[in-house]
């Protein structure tokens, strides 16, 4: 849906007026309370203002225009990509992380025995096409985790270059260029590559992750997690409750510990810093943090990790941890079931991470 210029201007003006009114209302007390009061004001105002911005981003052409602007800036600021990456190859299946925008990753997966390829979340179609040509591979499928433009913005551009290439994803998520809607546990097969789609709502209503079966080629399985799970982190709950998100995270935690995790963003350093605040004595986290610091000092990619590693230091996969409960000051309520309690732990974690990001 496209908004007229005056409608967009009106929404922007309303947002500005709302901010001014709140500033006038709180300006006297703000002098006395400083940062704490600012956090409270942010908590009061973020939701309605954010909802306006989020709706414009996801449901109008304004979001696409913003994505295109960010793409141009990224190409100027990071001509070689925001991070240096190396392909991983397992018995003829090559996984190529593609750094796009300021911190996103797309992934090109190539069956080198037949020169066919699948791409996950192709935000920059020009870059994906260049790598396809370099690999001498034919694109046979586009797997999209969710509708946000930094993951789906290149779908239509690639389809213009590969008109017969299907675009897979959830019908619930209004994915640009979608041709083949998927349901939970549906399969996509290209060459020797067998992908299973797993429905994981929470970040968006139709978010999906894709599990590449390693057993078919005698290799570890690989999970392309979009914005559900990152190294030591998880995505914001834009369109789902903490209970919904917990169920999706439990889907990840149930996978084999050796499964490789290929996330949609390079957030490792900040995520591990936050994890230190809620589990300061977690030695696995500290060891991983030192490794990440070394990598990021050279602008090197930090993926993949493994599901087993994530369960040791990712607080969003550790909602059952007694140490975490103590650090958060959250304890079970009378007659509260275990799932409800863990969802409350997750909600508190997410709130704290959002505040941490604003510092």
UniProtKB/TrEMBL annotation:
<dbReference type="GO" id="GO:0005739">
    <property type="term" value="C:mitochondrion"/>
</dbReference>
<dbReference type="GO" id="GO:0046872">
    <property type="term" value="F:metal ion binding"/>
</dbReference>
<dbReference type="InterPro" id="IPR001279">
    <property type="entry name" value="Metallo-B-lactamas"/>
</dbReference>
<dbReference type="InterPro" id="IPR036866">
    <property type="entry name" value="RibonucZ/Hydroxyglut_hydro"/>
</dbReference>
<comment type="similarity">
    <text>Belongs to the metallo-beta-lactamase superfamily. Glyoxalase II family.</text>
</comment>
<feature type="domain" description="Metallo-beta-lactamase">
    <location>
        <begin position="103"/>
        <end position="265"/>
    </location>
</feature>
<dbReference type="InterPro" id="IPR035680">
    <property type="entry name" value="Clx_II_MBL"/>
</dbReference>
<keyword id="KW-1133">Transmembrane helix</keyword>
<protein>
    <recommendedName>
        <fullName>Metallo-beta-lactamase domain-containing protein</fullName>
    </recommendedName>
</protein>
<dbReference type="Pfam" id="PF00753">
    <property type="entry name" value="Lactamase_B"/>
</dbReference>
<dbReference type="InterPro" id="IPR032282">
    <property type="entry name" value="HAGH_C"/>
</dbReference>
<keyword id="KW-0479">Metal-binding</keyword>
<dbReference type="Pfam" id="PF16123">
    <property type="entry name" value="HAGH_C"/>
</dbReference>
<dbReference type="InterPro" id="IPR017782">
    <property type="entry name" value="Hydroxyacylglutathione_Hdrlase"/>
</dbReference>
<keyword id="KW-0812">Transmembrane</keyword>
<feature type="transmembrane region" description="Helical">
    <location>
        <begin position="6"/>
        <end position="26"/>
    </location>
</feature>
<dbReference type="GO" id="GO:0019243">
    <property type="term" value="P:methylglyoxal catabolic process to D-lactate via S-lactoyl-glutathione"/>
</dbReference>
<keyword id="KW-0472">Membrane</keyword>
<dbReference type="GO" id="GO:0004416">
    <property type="term" value="F:hydroxyacylglutathione hydrolase activity"/>
</dbReference>
<keyword id="KW-0862">Zinc</keyword>
<keyword id="KW-0378">Hydrolase</keyword>
């Amino acid at each position: 849906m496209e908004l007229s210029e005056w409608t967009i201007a009106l929404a922007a003006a309303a947002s500005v007026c709302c901010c001014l009114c709140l500033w006038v209302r709180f300006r006297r007390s703000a002098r006395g309370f400083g940062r704490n009061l600012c956090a409270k004001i942010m908590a009061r105002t973020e939701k309605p203002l954010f909802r306006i911005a989020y709706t414009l981003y996801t449901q109008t052409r304004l979001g696409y225009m913003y994505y295109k602007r960010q793409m141009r800036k990224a190409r100027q600021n990071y001509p070689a990509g925001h991070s240096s990456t190396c392909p991983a190859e397992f018995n003829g299946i090559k996984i190529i992380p593609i750094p796009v925008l300021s911190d996103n990753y797309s992934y090109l997966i190539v069956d080198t025995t037949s020169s066919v390829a699948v791409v996950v979340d192709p935000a920059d179609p020009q870059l994906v096409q260049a790598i396809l040509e370099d690999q001498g591979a034919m694109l046979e499928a586009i797997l999209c985790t969710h509708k946000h433009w930094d993951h789906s913005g290149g779908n239509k551009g690639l389809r213009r270059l590969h008109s017969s290439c299907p675009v897979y994803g959830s019908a619930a998520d209004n994915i640009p260029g979608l041709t083949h809607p998927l349901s939970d546990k549906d399969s996509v097969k290209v060459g020797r590559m067998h992908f299973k789609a797993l429905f994981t709502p929470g970040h968006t209503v139709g978010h999906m992750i894709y599990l590449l079966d390693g057993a078919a080629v005698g290799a570890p399985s690989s999970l392309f997690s979009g914005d559900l799970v990152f190294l030591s982190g998880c995505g914001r709950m834009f369109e789902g409750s903490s209970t919904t998100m917990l169920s999706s995270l439990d889907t990840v935690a149930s996978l084999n510990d050796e499964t490789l995790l290929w996330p949609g963003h390079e957030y490792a350093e900040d995520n591990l810093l936050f994890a230190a605040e809620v589990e300061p004595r977690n030695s696995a986290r500290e060891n991983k943090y030192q490794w990440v610091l070394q990598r990021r000092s050279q602008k090197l990619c930090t993926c993949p990790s493994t599901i087993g590693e994530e369960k040791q230091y990712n607080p969003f996969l550790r909602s059952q941890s007694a140490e975490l409960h103590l650090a958060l000051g959250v304890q079970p309520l009378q007659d509260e079931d275990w799932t409800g309690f863990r969802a409350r732990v997750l909600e508190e974690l997410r709130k704290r991470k959002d505040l941490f990001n604003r510092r």
